[in-house]
Amino acid sequence: MSSAASLSGDRHHLHAQQQDPTKTKTIRQTYARRLRGAFGRINSTIRDAVIEEDIFGLRDDDLSDEQVEELLDTFASADRDVELRAVDEPPDLSTVPPSERIERFREWLQTAQESEVLEVIDRDENVWVRRAYERGLEDADTNLRQAGLDIESTGSKAARELVEMPVHERKLQVLFSRNYAELEGITNAVAQQVTRELADGIAAGENPTKMARRITDRVNKIGKTRATVLARTETINAHTQSTIERYRQQGINSVGLEPEVQVQTAGDQRVCDRCASVAQRGPWTLDEFEGSENQPPIHPQCRCAVIPIVNEAAAAALEAHPHEFVAMYRTGAFVDESRERYEALAATDVDGAQELVAHFSPTQTAA
C-alpha cells in the first residue's frame, strides 16, 4: 500500500452505505432458490417412494392410506415454499438383497441429481453468474464516476456487450467451471452421506418413516444448505471479479495514477467483524488487492463490494503539471513520501516543477 494511501484526507471514496452494495440480492436469491428447488423435488420423490411405495420393503405394520398421506403431508410441510415437480421415481428395491438396494438407490440418486440439480447450470454457461458479472461492470463505471473520473456510465445493454470481449469471456468461463465443479462436489457429498444413512437404517431395521427422515435430512442439510451458500458466495465472487477487471480496463492508471480500491460492507447489523475490519483498512492497489484475503467474498455468503479510491493530492499534482507528474512517476519519485511530493508539485510553478523532475531523474535516483 502506498504511503499516500495510508494518510487520511488524501483520498476520496464512496461513503454511502447500503444493505446491498453489489445490487445482486435478487440474483443471489433466485440462483439459490433454483438450486434448493431441485433438491426439494428430489426429496419429495424420495418421501413418496420410501413411505408410500415402500421401495425398500421396510414396512412391518399395516398403515392405512390415510395414515400414509398424513405422514407425507408432515414431511412436505418443510418444502411448501418450493415448487415441487417429481423426478423419475426410484425403482422398487423391496425384493433385492440389502447391499444391492443401497447401490441401486445410490445410482438413482446420482442420476436424479444430474438431471435436476446439475441441470440448473452448465459447465459453459451460468445465467446468474453472467448477470452478476454484468452487474459488476455496470457498478464499476458508476463507482468510478462517483469517485470523480470522467467516464461514460454503462447500462445493462452495454454490459451485455462488454462481456463478449475476450478478457471477460475468459474470466466468465473460469467462473462457470468453478460453479459447476463446486455444485458437482455438493451432489457427490449428498450421495455419499445418503448411502451411509441408508446402510445404517437398513442395518438398524428402521421403518419407512425413519428411513425417509434419515435420507431427506441429508439432502436438506448438505444439498440445500451448501447449494444456498454456493449461490450467494459465487454471485459476489463474479461481481468482484468483473469490478476489478473493469477498473483495470478503464485505464485509470494510464496517466500515471496507480489505481486503488477499498472494500465497502453492507453497512447493517449483519456485517461481521471480519468484513468490518477489512473495510477499515486499505486502500490497496489492484495488484495488492486482487487474489488477497481482503478481496470479496471475504468469507462464505459475504455481501461486500469493491469501490475505487481517487488520491486527491495526486490528482491535483497531475492537473497542475501533467508532463512533470508523469516524468516523476516513471522515475519512482512517488514511491516514498508521496503525499509531500504530490503537494510540492501541485503548489509550485513551471520552473519549480522542472526542478523537481531534474532532482528525481533516473541518474539522480540511481545515485
Can you characterise this structure?
This protein is 60% helix and 3% strand. It starts with 24 loop residues before the first helix and ends with a helix. The radius of gyration is 28 Å and the shape is elongated. It has a 3-stranded antiparallel beta sheet with strand order 2-1-3. The protein contains 14 helices and 3 strands. By secondary structure, it is mostly helical.
Can you give keywords for this protein?
mainly alpha; elongated; three-stranded antiparallel beta sheet; 367 residues; disordered N terminus; 14 helices
In short:
With 367 residues, the chain is mainly alpha-helical. It is built from 14 helices and three strands.
What is the CA-atom radius of gyration, in angstroms? 28 Å
Choose one word for the global shape: elongated
Instruction: Give the low-confidence spans.
Output: 1-17, 75-85
Distance between the termini: 25 Å
Strand content: under 5%
Total beta-strand segments: 3
Based on the structure, what is the oligomeric state of the protein chains?
A: single chain
- Work out the helix count: 14
Run of helices and strands = HHHHHHHEHEHEHHHHH
Strand order of the largest sheet: 2-1-3
Sketch the major β-sheet.
Answer: 3 strands, antiparallel
Structural class by helix and strand composition? mainly alpha
Mean pLDDT: 83
